[in-house]
Write a structure and sequence with these properties.
This protein starts with a strand and ends in a 38-residue tail after the last strand. The protein is mainly beta and 181 residues long. The strands form three sheets. A six-stranded antiparallel β-sheet has the order 1-2-10-7-12-5, with no helix packed on it. Strands 9-8-11-6-13 form a five-stranded antiparallel β-sheet, with no helix packed on it. Strands 3-4 form a two-stranded antiparallel sheet. 3% of the residues lie in helices and 40% in strands.
Length: 181
């Protein structure tokens, strides 16, 4: 696998080795020993898959206090994936970075706890997998407004489909200190 560390401490972009021939392809999506060597230790306690249509924007989500690290990848389709660093001690606090994740390249992104996460579906539909380091907790659900003017994220969609819940999140500058990391 090809590992690309980012300027965001702990955020790791992974291009897996894909073994393919005329019959199809194979890849490992998790190997505890190999991933531990690159700084991804888990433990992973929950796997999730979401299905979304073209133009759907999900996010920007995170959990606190039951914070989740996430190892994510696209099973089918393509997404523009965005993370926002919410760790006050990070040199990238309040900054965002985006990645194109596709079924063709099967890239993975490890998003450590302390980030808000969201994505926009670029293909007709997308199956998106999350391998999480903590369980889902309704009481811990938090978010940042997807179109926050402070963050100024240029979502690549003209008329995004947004859930009612995601339209009600606060802007980054309005987050209470106890909701940051």
């Amino acid at each position: 696998m090809n590992i690309k560390k980012t300027d965001f401490p702990g955020l790791i972009y992974i291009e897996p080795r894909i073994f393919g021939d005329s019959r199809g392809w194979f890849l490992e999506t998790w190997n505890e020993e190999q991933y531990k060597q690159i700084g991804i230790t888990g433990p992973f306690v929950q796997d999730n898959i979401s299905y979304s249509s073209r133009g759907v924007v999900r996010g920007l989500h995170y959990q606190k206090p039951y914070s989740q690290g996430k190892l994510i990848f696209v099973i089918q389709g393509s997404v523009w994936d965005v993370v926002v660093d919410l760790r006050k001690s990070s040199p990238k606090f309040g900054k965002w970075i985006a990645f194109n994740l596709t079924e063709e390249k099967k890239e993975q992104l490890f998003v450590p706890a302390g980030f808000a996460h969201g994505f926009c579906v670029l293909s007709d539909s997308a199956l998106f997998q999350y391998k999480c380091t903590d369980k889902y907790s309704l009481q811990s659900e938090q978010g940042i407004m997807w179109n926050d003017p402070h963050l100024n994220i240029p979502w690549p969609v003209d008329n995004p489909l947004i859930s009612n819940k995601d339209q009600k999140h606060p802007c980054f500058k309005d987050l209470r200190d106890d909701l940051l990391f």
